[in-house]
Design a protein that fits this description.
single chain, Aminopeptidase, 7 strands, alpha+beta, globular, 144 residues
Length: 144
Amino acid sequence: MHIVTVEGVPYDWLNQLQEIHAHVFDGANLLLEKLESKEGLICLLAVEKEDIIGFKLGFRHPDGVFYSWLGGVHEKKRGQEIASQLMRKQHEHLQTLGFKKVRTYGRNERKAMLITNLKHGFDIVSTFVDTKDRHKIVFEKLLD
């Protein structure tokens, strides 16, 4: 497995990215227009034998903090530290770009991701209820 980092929309990988997104997020579509609208989009793709088995997407938030937006690993590849590898690689890349802080949101239903965030040095800084009436946990981490 290796990790491919793409700044901007990963057009060469788009179909596979949309397929794994649908797999991870219960059939939800990842629209090209949505990707193209994210300023400073950075995509990390865990690739095995030319197939995406995991991904991590994020972009520059208007307040200058990097927002780690979406990510996941194919269910057959979970438990192999792929999400952790993607997160470490993302944070290393963000540091080279001069980011000082990364933020992400979590939901109580996705406990594995909450635990991964805590293991990697994120702090819980607040909570809120989104427009779909879901409780969200806000995590932030200072990049060293």
